[in-house]
Amino acid sequence: MSKRTIQLEVLRYRPEQDKEPVFQTYTVPCEEEWVVLDALNYVKDEIDRTLSFRWSCHMFVCGSCGYKIDGEPKLGCKAFLRDYGDHIRVEPLDNFPIERDLVVVLDDFMEKLQSVKPYLIPKEEKPVSAGEYLQTPAQLKAFKQYSMCINCMLCYSVCPQYALAPEFIGPAALALAHRYNMDSRDVGRKAREDMVAAHEGVWECSFVGACSQVCPKDVDPAGAIQQAKFTSAIDYVTSLVGIGGK
Amino acid sequence: MDARKPYVRKVSKTSWFMTHARYKTYMLHEVSSIFVALYMVLLIWGLFALADGPQAWGNWMSFIESPLVILLSLIAFGFFVIHTMSWFKAVPQAMRIQKGEHFIPGNLIIGGHYAVLGGFSLFVLILAGVA
User: Fold this and answer.
1) pLDDT of A161-193, one tens digit each?
2) pLDDT confidence of residue A242
3) Among B22, B110, B113, B127, which is least packed, fewest CB within 10 Å?
4) What is the ipTM of this complex?
5) Domains in chain A, please, with CATH?
6) Quick check: B11 and A95 in contact, CB under 8 A?
7) Chain B, window 39-98: residues with a beta carbon less than 8 angstroms from a chain A beta carbon
8) Whole-structure pTM value
9) Using the 8-state DSSP alphabet, how is residue A60 labeled?
10) Which domains are delineated in chain B?
11) Nearest to B94 among A141, A160, A226 (CB)
12) Any chain A CB within 8 A of the CB of B108?
């Protein structure tokens, strides 16, 4: 296997010493099959142990290693070095405050995620002994795509609406709300409506569509939001003519 | 002591779209709808002219037949086509039609929209005596 050397330019921010983020370049000898996360781990293990970044599973399941790589948000574990030149620039995700180096502050996203009640709200709670809430493969198909979200937040980092109006609930949380609203076992649409159908909910979205372009799991949050807009509009009209209240 | 000091990167409210090609494309697409809106104004003006009688209608007709207005109309038509295509392309995202365990392919939904558009356009052209 041929060795290759790359220049890894990483945006550093050490709150105890940096007034603002600065780039630092590391020379990394790497293997052909490496991803950007491997290169970062090499730096951490062999060159500079002060470098901070999040990662966990190394197999694009956990959603921890989202960074901006050469200007595009990617999962560090899914960005193969062979697809990049010999100089790679890694930055923390846009639209989030930087906690340290490549680590961003998640608090806002976590609050928004919780606000849309992203869990099953069944018509009536059953004891575990009563068995599963059943559904057909077709009913599963209706929402399965939206359940693939791994909360990596790449979508938030490219959403200009979130950048300009931080109160926007944002792509991933709205897609997850949609996921539960589309679930045949769930009756929580009304409970989520306050957040989803609000101005800072789906109606803040101007359908730039960048979220769906960068989603590593093909969730298509932009599509979910447009569908939720349609439902919200129908709800509004039916409430106007007095046949709503479902 | 709280050692946290998160760094917030500023986003320019007036030039954010210059930071990436996809935002530039989006903004150009949005701005081009001004031409579409102006053409709507032209058509509405024509309706009022029609209601005002032969004199006003004649004035409007000679206005829209001037080379400059024809040129602007052609530009507006170009943007109409672009907006129609991008709108139709987005439809399968906003309108998923499930049949059993499968979704109707997006291309079929898009094709259906073009068929309806073609049908209506033909109808209007026949009404206008062109086709």
Assistant:
1) 999 999 999 999 999 999 999 999 999 999 999
2) 79
3) B127
4) 0.88
5) 4-104 (3.10.20.30), 107-240 (1.10.1060.10)
6) yes
7) 90, 92-96, 98
8) 0.91
9) S
10) 15-79 (1.20.1300.10), 95-131 (no CATH)
11) A226
12) no
